[in-house]
Amino acid sequence: MMKTIHSILTITFITCIACAQQTESEIKAESPKTNNYKTEVFVSDLEIPWGMTFLPDGSMLITEKTGELILFKEGIKTTIENVPDVYFRGQGGLLDIKAHPNYEDNGWIYITYSSSEGDGDGGNTAVIRAKLDDNKLVDKQTLYKATPNTKKGQHWGSRIAFDDQGYLYFSIGDRGNRDVNPQDITRDGGKIYRLNNDGSIPNDNPFIDNENAKTAIYSYGHRNPQGMAKNPFTGNIWVNEHGPRGGDEINIIQKGKNFGWPVISYGINYNGTTFTDITEKVGMEQPLFYWVPSIAPSGMAFVSSNIYPDWNKNILIGSLKFEYLERLVLENDKVIKREKLFEDIGRVRNVIQGPDGYIYIAVEGKGIFKIVPEK
Predict the structure, then answer these.
(1) Is 155 a catalytic residue?
(2) In 224-363, where do the E strands start and end?
């Protein structure tokens, strides 16, 4: 009952004046009455643009899930050479990419991808860093490779974020092993990890002294986080993650915390059966927000740019399932309004705010769009 009341309160629309609180089945993201922004093509003709990051010269690096890394500069696409071999299976491929916050000084680029390296058939999520030299990746270093390899194609994660102290965070989904990986800190999968930017383990990671634990783990009990961003107003790392049928979540990552999957959930199996009867349990964190029905969230960006004054401090999240960009209005870390933007634009795979202050969204089968104010 506590969680149901919390959910209703967090998703009551602020645009409803003196209206009754809505039940979960009635809650829907509304289309805006007016939208002061439009999209324009920034990069065209992309298949599945999974990750994107800007470099200081204004160029953009883009990962194609199929394994191609593209440098886009002044309207020209260049294919980058010496990209790691990708175990392309199911949801796996060449995934996220992020330039180091101090890229101008150190030149490091961080990439997650599905890797077959190591023992056993199949693959698992890996994180590398490398430098870019003459349109080629050089000085490649593997920072983390999850084990064991598996032929399962689902739930690789995998987003990247840096916090204000320069720590590297990344996500790995439960790899389709729901009932084993997420709740076991001696195993990879279903976790958020934290490393120093050189791949070493921070000495204050929560499980550093736990026997047999994967000491890179920062939080656990996650399903498949495909959105991750630093909240620029608080410095906290936020994630969104796919639920099963219902129960997609937003969580604020906290050191050593258990976010409950699959012991607690607001979702059910895809075939309509249940896998848990509880939505809360002592010692497990409640989501900041959850969606019923699921929207299949991917990508996540906080708006801090003065280009979008009426979106200030909002979150933008892509919906793969319903093919729009969702705007969430926050108040004291509570979602108080949902809004659909650019309906039917396509499967929104990622969203970032660029260093120029503009919002960029990656759409499968189309490319990357820039959101600009209507004139």
Answers:
(1) yes
(2) 225-230, 237-241, 248-252, 289-291, 297-302, 315-319, 324-331, 334-341, 348-353, 359-363
